[in-house]
Amino acid sequence: MSKEVLFISESEVSKITNMRTAIDCMEDAFIAFAKGEIFNYPRYRLPTSHGQYNFMSASWITKGYAANKSYVSHKNGIDFNVMLYDTTHRGLIAIIEANILGQIRTGAVSGLASKYLSKTNSDVFGIVGSGYQAETQFEAIINIRDINEVFVYSRKKTNRENFALKMAEKFNVSVVPLDYDNFIKINFDILTSVTNSPKPVITKEMINSSIHINAAGNNSWMKSEVEIDVIDKIDKIICDEISQAKIESGELLRAQEQGAFSWETASGLSEIIHNKKLSKNYQNISTLFESQGLAMEDLAMAVSIYNLAIENNYGKIVKT
Hints:
This protein is of the alpha/beta class. The chain is 38% helix and 27% strand. Strand 3 (52-60) and strand 4 (65-74) form a beta hairpin.
């Protein structure tokens, strides 16, 4: 028996949602997770002929939705798709192309963490990395703090210069591209890394007593964006979800092995957001947010995108 499902394309996702909406979605989801209303299953990976098959899922009990995101990495890139289900009576209701969805929600989670963990008067922002994920990381921080100065570092000079020009024009803020030696001299309020580097790009020279760091590019034990000396020195480490970080956070796993970090000292972002008084304890100390990327984040975005698509006549009905 066939049924009708709404297919929402990448181009439609980019028209339907925005960063402010995404940050609000993330906040709702993390509060719900703290209350036990959302169940999140960590990503698992299976080997394929030319890469990996990745699968992650979550359910939102009180709203009556569930979703999974799956994607295959192969020689021509990665294809992301989210399947959204109504768990009350309709079953599968939407298939959403999810490259842009994932890009926006990854930035939004860093923005949400920075909202609760960085100083309220933060105005100097640094970003390591200049790829497509860096753009939404940049946008998220601009949305939650009154940033006056931005500095960008990436290994290739042309990449960081092009990124600086593009972001300065788009957001009307000063963006200065720097090499490493000059980048580490800046006294950052917020520092975000979003790279796929197997070697640390956040070093102890970049740290100050009240910095907030978002490590957003690493979700594999084979990668490490933050050097162990930083993890050892930082006052408080917060994970998007600790059980998933224990599987995927390469830098924390290595720091634990070397005795520079213990999981008992880490906190989950949901408990800090749910208990807003708790966040005030973190805004004047140094903090590190480890973002692996959660299925519940994709679920929250998918629910929002689906409802907005229905309201605004986006998407195409397909039969399955």
